[in-house]
């Protein structure tokens, strides 16, 4: 069975007339170009970035003008960094050598989609995606936003391996020897206020018999008042 990533590679390779042969590494006595480690940065990433940049120039230019207006400036989070933005020959604002992508409009979303979900990017990790984009684009909190974007990707959540230790087996809680010897409790809050100004319910459940008490309370009750209520309603009865 192929996973989602392998299926995407198969669909891509089906467009070419080629034959794939497996050659074990130990049998590869004479190293060829494909088995050598890359000494220079691949050009395919830069080509992808230039393609995205060229197609978005009119949209980004309009978004930059709108973002610097007084009504939209505070949402950009520049915090004075707009003074370091320079206008280049193409009429766009750059932070040093990287194009500034404003929050106004959906330019950031388009760039992130192209860099993560396109046919040739194949869902890179947050670190690799940031490394690919930081050479061309800039905005405040860029690395954090890329990490959040990758974390929300449904395809990555379904396909990619979780690099964490598997959790242990569920432990059976100890069975109480007597009723109301052990209890569990919960608070249900933000309810409509009653005539007695109660807006919450304190749920107390006996772990052995599963019998429960539902005590009307207010959300602002102190710990001392809750303790007295527990003594009067629970301890005195059981």
UniProtKB/TrEMBL annotation:
InterPro entries: Integrase_H2C2, RNaseH-like_sf, RNaseH_sf. It comes from the Eukaryota. One of its GO terms (molecular function) is nucleic acid binding. Residues 108-161 form the Integrase zinc-binding domain. Gene3D superfamilies: 1.10.340.70, Ribonuclease H-like superfamily/Ribonuclease H. This is Integrase zinc-binding domain-containing protein. It comes from Mikania micrantha (bitter vine).
